[in-house]
Amino acid sequence: MSSSDQPTLIEYPCDFPVKIMGRVGSLSGSPASPAPLEHRRQEFTQAVLMMVKRHAPDFDDATLEVRISKKNNYLSLTCTVRAVSREQLDALYQELCDHPLVVMVL
């Protein structure tokens, strides 16, 4: 049975929050300088927004929620998309999970 054959508890269309986490801090134990750190944050954010908009073209950037971890190693983005089908969400999750900058998608 494929994932699209399984019953869903979600009624479509609906607003569906997707939380995407990525590592943006230094991979070594030493702190990263602010300029490259900000560049990595922007690069991660832009990559995620591009993927989200590919699957949910009506996503409004202004609704993006951004949180940075205490030690500046991780960036969490929450995108609430207007989900129209399970296939749409599955494709979005798959693309996000396959991206090298993404650590986790919830």
From TrEMBL:
Gene3D superfamilies: 3.30.70.260. It comes from the Bacteria. This is Uncharacterized protein. One of its GO terms (cellular component) is cytosol. InterPro entries: UPF0250_YbeD-like, YbeD-like_sf. Belongs to the UPF0250 family.
